[in-house]
Amino acid sequence: MNRTISALVLAAALSAAGPAMTAEKTVTLAVDNMYCSACPYTVKQSLAKVAGVGEVAVSYEKKTAIVSYDDQRTTVAALTAATTQAGYPSHPITGAAATK
User: Fold this and answer.
1) What is the 3 state secondary structure string of the chain?
2) How far apart are CA 96 and CA 35, in angstroms?
3) Alpha carbon of residue 42 to chain centroid
4) 76-85 helix and 39-48 helix, angle to the nearest 10 degrees
5) How confident is the model over 42-67, as pLDDT tens digits?
6) Residue 19's CB: how many other CB atoms inside 10 A?
7) Which of 30, 36, 38, 56 is most buried, judged by most C-beta within 10 A?
8) pTM over 0.85
9) What is the pLDDT of residue 21?
10) Is the dihedral angle over the CA atoms 50, 55, 58, 62 positive or is it negative?
11) Is residue 48 within 8 Å of residue 82, measured between CB atoms?
């Protein structure tokens, strides 16, 4: 009986810890085709619509988008697909300073 209760308690604790194990990540995307000061708005809106995206900061001057996202709900491929579908192809900038 005690083993059954212990197993149930352990199972409940592990299932409750599942959502806590998700990791928020940040990626910097190089964004093409931004030629006017209104373009970042469209890029930001396209990224914000992706499930799992938290914060988005788009820089017209640097031609980049910094995106915080839940890696359990979306991927970098989904982020780049969203900007590409909006007319702004993008790709992750590699390097330690670009991604966390």
Assistant:
1) CHHHHHHHHHHHHHHHHCHHHCCEEEEEEEECCCCCCCHHHHHHHHHHCCCCEEEEEEECCCCEEEEEEECCCCCHHHHHHHHHHCCCCEEECCCCCCCC
2) 28
3) 17
4) 140
5) 999 999 999 999 999 999 999 999 99
6) 9
7) 56
8) no
9) 59
10) negative
11) no
Contact 67, 79 (CB under 8 A): yes
Percentage of the chain exceeding pLDDT 70: 72
The pLDDT confidence band at residue 94, using thresholds 50, 70 and 90, is confident
Total residue length of the chain: 100
Q: In what order do the strands lie in the sheet with 64-70?
A: 53-59, 64-70, 24-31, 90-92
* Alpha-carbon span 96 to 76, nearest angstrom: 16
Distances (CA, A) of 72 to 6, 15, 24, 25, 75: 29, 15, 9, 10, 8
